[in-house]
Amino acid sequence: MKQNLLIDVLFLYLQYKKMEVSMCILKEVGRFIKNGASTFRNASQGNYKQNSGTISEIRKEIMEKNGTRSDDKKNLMEDRRKIEGDVRKSFDEIVLNNG
Question: How far is it, in rounded angstroms, from Cα 28 to Cα 99?
Answer without folding.
Answer: 43
